[in-house]
């Protein structure tokens, strides 16, 4: 379906989805967001939790900012996931939703996005590297099928929309 979408429509979808998501997320109570984030982390990091690989997060807070969704939160781990509203994190990861989807799907490496200035890491560099390495250790194959397929489809959809949107730009430049 997305492959047949006109390039103008693809550009509009890429432009409008963050605005819609931003509005939708603004009406969701933080407690519900925190519960969802906690559940997602528990599924994503199940193996690391079982292998006791998260000790470096005890007493440390990692902020995540999804810039185009205006979504910010902090996470820590102390034998369970802790999620709070932004306060005073040790390290902060900031990116737009597309960059984060690409990382989650394994389509893009966080280092590449960092050097392309699409992913910003501020604060405790050592903790930031440990978190980045933890994220890279997540194997999509170990995720529940519905979650893995959702992330993969979302990444493919975003790539298609970006390609279509880029086609519009190339067509516009060719006509000049």
UniProtKB/TrEMBL annotation:
One of its GO terms (biological process) is ubiquinone biosynthetic process. Residues 46-135 form the SCP2 domain. It holds the Pfam family SCP2. Pathway: Cofactor biosynthesis; ubiquinone biosynthesis. InterPro entries: SCP2_sterol-bd_dom (IPR003033), SCP2_sterol-bd_dom_sf (IPR036527), UbiT (IPR016830). The keyword Manganese does not apply. Keywords: Ubiquinone biosynthesis. It comes from the Bacteria. Belongs to the UbiT family. Required for O(2)-independent ubiquinone (coenzyme Q) biosynthesis. Likely functions as an accessory factor. This is Ubiquinone biosynthesis accessory factor UbiT. It comes from Parashewanella spongiae. The lineage of its organism: Bacteria, Pseudomonadati, Pseudomonadota, Gammaproteobacteria, Alteromonadales. The gene is ubiT.
């Amino acid at each position: 379906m997305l492959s047949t979408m006109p390039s103008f429509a693809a550009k509009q979808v890429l432009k409008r989805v963050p605005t819609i998501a931003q509005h939708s997320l603004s009406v969701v109570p933080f407690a519900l967001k925190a519960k969802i984030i906690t559940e997602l982390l528990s599924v994503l990091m199940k193996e690391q939790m079982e292998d006791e690989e998260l000790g470096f997060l005890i007493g440390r807070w990692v902020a995540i900012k999804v810039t185009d969704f205006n979504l910010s939160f902090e996470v820590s781990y102390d034998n369970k996931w802790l999620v709070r509203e932004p306060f005073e994190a040790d390290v902060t990861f900031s990116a737009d939703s597309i960059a984060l989807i690409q990382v989650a799907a394994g389509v893009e490496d966080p280092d590449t996005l960092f050097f392309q200035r699409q992913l910003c890491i501020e604060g405790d560099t050592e903790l930031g590297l440990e978190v980045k390495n933890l994220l890279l250790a997540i194997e999509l194959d170990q995720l529940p099928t519905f979650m893995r397929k959702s992330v993969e489809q979302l990444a493919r959809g975003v790539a298609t929309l970006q390609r279509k949107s880029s086609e519009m730009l190339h067509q516009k430049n060719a006509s000049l």
